[in-house]
What does this fold into?
Amino acid sequence: MLEARDITVCYSKREVIAGVSLTAEPGSVTAIIGPNGAGKSTLMRALNGAKEITRGEVLLDGKPLAEFARRVVGRRIAVVAQESDLRFPVTVMEFVLGGRYSWASMGAWGWETERDVEAARLALEETELTDFGTRLVGELSGGERQRAVLARALATEAAILLLDEPTANLDLAHQAAMLSLVRERSDNCGAAAVVVTHDVNLAAAFADRVLLLKAGRTLAHGAPREVLTPETLRELFDIQVLVDDHPITGAPRITPVLQDFLRR
Amino acid sequence: MSVSTEVGAKNEATRAVGEARVTLRYALLVCLVLALLLLVVMVAGLLVGSERLPVSATLCAIFTAGGNVCSLSSIERAILFDVRLPRIVLAATVGASLAAAGAGYQALLRNPLAEPYLLGISNGAAVGTMIALVFFGAMEWSRPVMAFAGALGATFIVYRLARGRAGTSPERLILAGVIVTTFLSSVIVFVTTLMDATRIRSFTFWLLGDLSGSTAQMLTIALVAALVGVVVLAMNARALNLMMLGERDAFDLGVEVERVRLTVFLVASLLVGASVASSGSVGYVGLVVPHLVRLSVGSDNRLAIPAAALAGASFVIVADTVARTVIAPRELPVGAITALIGAPLFIYLLRRG
It folds into this structure.
């Protein structure tokens, strides 16, 4: 379990995250929603220990995150980050096997075991990349590459998943597939996931809890139905929305009311 | 200016046929082949030179480790074992050091164009060596120590200069290297003018990379540094594989980024320092060899680093054999040969980006 308690993160005196708390519990998916520049990525990096926190604490199973060795954290927390640039040719298989680094014996030296290769194959299968193993990551399309990054995260077999806009480059079908994969990990394997997304409807459909982040502060935090209301969303995005029930899934359905814009 | 992003993307597919990753078996096989190649190159280097040695007798002497049964005169034996052998071992040492260091810098700085000579790191080591020569001339051991310090200093400065607010871009790194190189070149020129005329010529030769003027002590130091350096780099190779894809990603996947970065900087500087102190700045080895290695066996540093070391050893022996035979009995600096091969490749890499 990963827990952030009242954390504050500063970039040279400016508070980017101010007093945010959240808990990633086993079997739950938390969505973080907020406008550009709200501090979503910074929050994710703080949760992983990649960004130093000024106040508050991040606890992994009740112990401060900073007390763990990086390799231990690598085994417990997997990250799907926004950018990943490649200047050297690596195959998709090699790329995904990167997720097994923290499992290596001999101080992270040596070669992958059969078990590592098996975990990587499984991750490729789950992300529909089985036939892509020998391809070069640099030759993949944006969406395929995004899936390769997810595959690498899944290959770590970490129980906590931090995903920063995992659906950004994906088409409609793969957006849903990506999030159902995360949902499955959560339901079947007890994984705890925190997902940053701009898609409020996907969040409403897949998340157990939603945290609305505005200018580094928590605007609302709770079940999708409680949080995703016209009032909070207006405060968050400064836009009029219609919220009703999805006729099939029953989840809250958010539709921006564009009339204001059209009339302007 | 756009810098090459995908080294050898096309050839990669041929390696990846059937196997999408480098297995231990494959790595050992490649290294074995390269080691055999190195052995052949060494023997060939021993046979070829401005002084013609009888082939069969020489081979006999090589493979019996100087046994007196072979019909070599004492002069011929001296040429073989006291002149050529140490020089070939030094060439192998320098080649292995520079190629491995180049591969290390490339992975760490995430730039296929990073190379000790081009980044000014060799010049840093040269300045260190010069300071040792001028101020502690009697103490030979001070040269590699100061060369190491110089290489480390230059590495640090280049790294800091290249790291802008928005991170390290490939272009910025090369520019930082150009600045450090030219600055240190001026320092070198300044010190050179203070020397007497007879030393200037041999010194200019040394600056371009010269394998003829080393001593047994220096050879030993360089050899030990090369062995330690290549092993330590290879031990960090798996972490470097991830660092190569970005430090942020590597951190997320469990790499202790700071520790790996410091280790690789120290070790690569050690390799460059020791090879410059023993034989001057042999340029482009760290660019040409790792590039060809990655082109043929892929980017996995667990294979690429030892393979680059073995191939680099062969490369410099060949280059030095050319350097000492092509206008025999006079010699060219080996660095002139490696630069003749390396500079066009650099331009090619730059253009395909």
